[in-house]
C-alpha cells in the first residue's frame, strides 16, 4: 500500500483542564495547522494510533467520532475494541 493510500491518525486525551479526547489526522494537515495540531497531540496523553485506508476513510472517521463521543461521555473503551471496530479500515 502506498503512503498516499493511507491516513495516519492518533486519538489522544488533552492534558488541559477539559481532558477531552480528540483525534488528529496527521497526513491531512496542511502547513498552516500542522505544527499546532502536532504540538497539541504531543502534549496530550496517547490513547490509540494507526493508519486508515484512504478509500474508506469516511466510514473509518465515523467510527472514530463515535469512539470519541463515548470516551468523552465517560464510557470505558479499550484499545482492543477500537482495533476491532476499525479492523476493516486499517491499512
Descriptors:
24% strand; alpha+beta; 3-stranded antiparallel sheet; 91 residues; flat
| Tally of contiguous helical segments | 3
Backbone CA Rg? 13 Å
Main beta-sheet annotation: 3 strands, antiparallel
Structural class: alpha+beta
Unreliable spans are none
- From the N-terminal CA to the C-terminal CA, the straight-line distance is 8 Å
Across the major sheet, the strand order is 2-1-3
* Mean pLDDT rating: 92
SSE string, helices as H and strands as E: EEHEHH
Q: How large a portion of the residues is in β-strands, by DSSP E?
A: 15-25%
- The number of E-state strands comes to 3
What number of domains? 1
Q: What is the overall shape? A: flat
Helicity range: 40-55%
Protein described:
With 91 residues, the protein is α+β, with helices and mostly antiparallel strands. It has one domain (3-86). It is 41% helix and 24% strand. The protein is built from three helices and three strands; from the N terminus they run ββαβαα. It has helices at residues 31-43, 57-72, 79-86; strands at residues 6-13, 21-25, 45-53. It has a three-stranded antiparallel sheet with strand order 2-1-3, sandwiched between helices. A hairpin with a 7-residue loop joins strand 1 (6-13) and strand 2. It is flat and about 40 Å long. The mean pLDDT is 92.
How would you sum up this structure in a few lines?
This protein has 91 residues and is of the alpha+beta class. It contains 3 helices and 3 strands, in the order ββαβαα. It has one domain (3-86).
Amino acid at each position: 500500500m502506498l503512503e498516499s493510500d493511507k491516513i495516519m491518525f492518533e486519538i489522544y486525551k488533552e492534558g488541559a483542564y477539559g481532558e477531552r479526547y480528540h483525534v488528529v489526522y496527521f497526513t491531512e494537515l496542511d502547513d498552516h495547522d500542522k505544527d499546532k495540531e502536532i504540538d497539541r497531540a504531543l502534549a496530550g496523553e496517547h490513547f490509540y494510533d494507526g493508519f486508515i485506508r484512504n478509500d474508506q476513510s469516511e466510514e473509518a472517521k465515523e467510527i472514530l467520532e463515535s469512539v470519541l463521543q463515548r470516551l468523552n461521555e465517560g464510557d470505558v473503551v479499550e484499545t482492543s475494541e477500537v482495533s476491532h471496530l476499525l479492523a476493516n479500515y486499517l491499512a
